Amino acid sequence: xxxxxxxxxxxxxxxxxxxxxxxxxxxxxxxxxxxxxxxxxxxxxxxxxxxxxxxxxxxxxxxxxxxxxxxxxxxxxxxxxxxxxxxxxxxxxxxxxxxxxxxxxxxxxxxxxxxxxxxxxxxxxxxxxxxxxxxxxxxxxxxxxxxxxxxxxxxxxxxxxxxxxxxxxxxxxxxxxxxxxxxxxxxxxxxxxxxxxxxxxxxxxxxxxxxxxxxxxxxxxxxxxxxxxxxxxxxxxxxxxxxxxxxxxxxxxxxxxxxxxxxxxxxxxxxxxxxxxxxxxxxxxxxxxxxxxxxxxxxxxxxxxxxxxxxxxxxxxxxxxxxxxxxxxxxxxxxxxxxxxxxxxxxxxxxxxxxxxxxxxxxxxxxxxxxxxxxxxxxx
Length: 380
What we know:
Layout: E1 3-5, E2 12-14, E3 16-19, H1 28-40, E4 45-48, H2 53-63, E5 71-76, E6 78-81, E7 84-87, H3 91-104, E8 110-115, H4 121-128, H5 131-141, E9 145-152, H6 155-164, E10 169-173, H7 204-216, E11 219-223, H8 245-253, E12 258-264, H9 268-275, H10 282-285, H11 288-292, H12 318-329, H13 336-343, H14 357-361, H15 368-379
Parallel strand pairs: 3-4, 3-12, 4-5, 5-8, 8-9, 9-10, 10-11, 11-12
Antiparallel strand pairs: 1-2, 6-7
């Protein structure tokens, strides 16, 4: 298992995580089997947004005796009322629900205290200016949560979070299908039967959200990496082609600021299918060729940092150089930290010999040599 730093939290989290939602369908023994299999595979981060009491209890029992081996994303604002899940900002409901989470998980702290499910910019601003945030900050001051996070499906909210100076990481829905769509406050839009044929490539708002997170040290953990499984079938995929779990995970992990993909598991075998990513070949990870040949929504001309361009005879990490260049273009002035990162590369754009071998391998027709020249001039 490989581990990545989750932004400015400094936590080193496994690239593959455990999203707890599917565990609601299982009894205590089945939950234990999945959780222990995850732990044996090196997974060290889990997300529990669910408020249903039994699943919280079952997860708590499964991690009993090994709490220190897990980073927990625990959600604040997810409550159980009248036998059903209710998202709320009412502190009279929020506080006992969060205390219930602590008790059922058998812990006195949560590593990542997640402000739960904020998909509207107006709601974000209301939360950040009110008593809900005061409560969350009080939990952090008391050590009950170690870091403040937020979950959202809307890139407009991600951008606000990244610029807030308060939110340290976000749980965000990331996959190649969702990435084509503009911001929306209705999550059902992402699961529409068909997408507008006029769409193509990554929506600029989502590109900007990723880059702002990278720029500001706001780490991303990923939900909906498989788009609810719709990407596994050509019939249900909006691209008209099927992707594998490994390809979906690789896509998410090539986004700027992404540290971990939180995968839902029904069985230990599902865990194996996800962690197979760690031993997969580049051919098995290659989502780019599949998308480039898809009948719908090509990413033509857009670098997705997939790494398909490698190897470079000059030793340039082309995907990284392209990523740093795109980050730099967001700034009025080139940040010293970004310049230092670029200069520390063993080979940067200045080493490009213009052979264009990378361009022959790029599934999306990116003019790499031209970008290398622009990067060389931009970074000096």
